Amino acid sequence: MFHGDLTTGSVGGQLGIVYCLSYASEIQARKCLSLTMRAGDLMQDPFYSRLIFAIEGQVHDYDLKTHDAEGVTLKDSDVKSALRKAISLIKGSGNSKPPKGQSDRLKFALAREIVEICENEREVEGVSAVEFTRAILAVEDTLKLRREMAGHSRGYLEFLREFIPGARGD
Fold first, then answer.
1. Which of these ranges, 4-13, 77-86, 135-144, has the smallest mean pLDDT?
2. Residue 94 to residue 116: CA distance in whole angstroms
3. Higher pLDDT, 94 or 118
4. Rounded distance, CA 25 to CA 3, Å?
5. Of 12, 49, 74, 89, which is the most exposed, with the fewest CB atoms less than 10 Å away?
6. What is the 3-state secondary structure (H, E, C) of the chain?
């Protein structure tokens, strides 16, 4: 069991979280916490930061691969579409129509790669679709922030080009 502090209510400062931590299994507690955490909080949580890093690493690798192999420069909006498509596929509501044109094909391929990470995490670590979806939404929040900070259509992808190799120790 995972126990919270009922007397102070100090866990996240929210009574609901204290209840979840006091009366649920560790897995149930993590699910309850993830529903009340903001994107910034998720990035500070080792469980979620690992998932977020895996997704962002895949986005970075895919960006490099499409540029080198096909001469295509992705934009942040392409990544956002792929993230949304991945969520739809994870929920089982993705449409099965073949992608039209190169842009849709590239976005769908990236979405599939993200879904493969989710499926692997589910098999190996027991990560639920809800937890993985929360990680994707946190990535989307980061994308929005970095694009706004940079003020151009590749702000997030340029951030990843600097961040990922350093974080991996490349």
1. 4-13
2. 14
3. 118
4. 9
5. 49
6. CCCCCCCCCCCCCCHHHHHHHHHCCHHHHHHHHHHHCCHHHHHHCHHHHHHHHHHHHHHHHHHHHHHHHHCCCCCHHHHHHHHHHHHHHHHCCCCCCCCCHHHHHHHHHHHHHHHHHHHHHHHHHCCCHHHHHHHHHHHHHHHHHHHHHHCCCCHHHHHHHHHHHHHHCC
Mean pLDDT, the chain, integer? 81
Given a cut of 60, whether residue 140 has pLDDT beyond it is yes
| Least confident among 3-7, 22-26, 105-109 | 3-7
The tokens 């992705």 sit on which residue? 74
Return the sign of the alpha-carbon dihedral for residues 91, 93, 98, 104: negative
Half-sphere exposure of 164 (CA within 13 A, CB side): 19
Which residue is it, tokens 């392409």?
78
HSE-up of 49 (CA within 13 Å, CB side)? Answer: 7
pTM: 0.77
Task: Determine the Cα–Cα distance for residues 16 and 160; give it in Å rounded to an integer.
Answer: 35
